[in-house]
Amino acid sequence: MEDPKRIVQEGYDQLSNRYRTHYEQLSPDRYSDWLTALAIRLPVKASILELGCADGIPTARFLSQQFDYLGVDLSPVQIQQARINVPQARFEIADMARLSFPGCSFDAIIALYSLIHLPVAEQPDLIKNIYQWLRPGGYVLCTVGASEWTGTDSNWNQSGASMYWSHTDAATYQSWFIGTGFTLLESYFVAEGNGGHTYFSLMK
Known about the structure:
- The chain is built from 7 helices and 9 strands.
- By secondary structure, it is an alpha/beta fold.
- It is globular, with a radius of gyration of 16 Å.
- One of its GO terms (molecular function) is methyltransferase activity.
């Protein structure tokens, strides 16, 4: 198989701002509800990291109004779009699996539909890193797999762009989070088309 991360990067590069159409086909209210619930819990001037920020909408645009926000994404095109869409926020091109931050750097870390673009073998180590990067009492919001699957789509959403996903099942993700030291606040299935994902809200 071609390098999975190259598939992901080139896929999001090719989609460019058409990815916004995909987001709008989901339920935008999901994001609003999740982000509003997080914002209420955070201290003033909280520091937030988003893994897989895409073009900055809606997460960066919403959170950077109140908080110190940093978004990272593998796609240079998505980061370029994000810097245009949300000029007050900070964005960097990066592979989330190779990031390095001092311990206790962030009050919240967000990974909505993004961890599952990493090969599943890399995900447990990233979850451990996320735990280390969070301050005590910090929060994680993420959406991951509901069932086990790894594969590609050569025409994602009929866009002509290829995309790669890799995820395990919800019970395994929960065991990884709890085993790392997180406290589970909320978890539920998020339907999408004929399948869906699992939403987790966690606290260190």
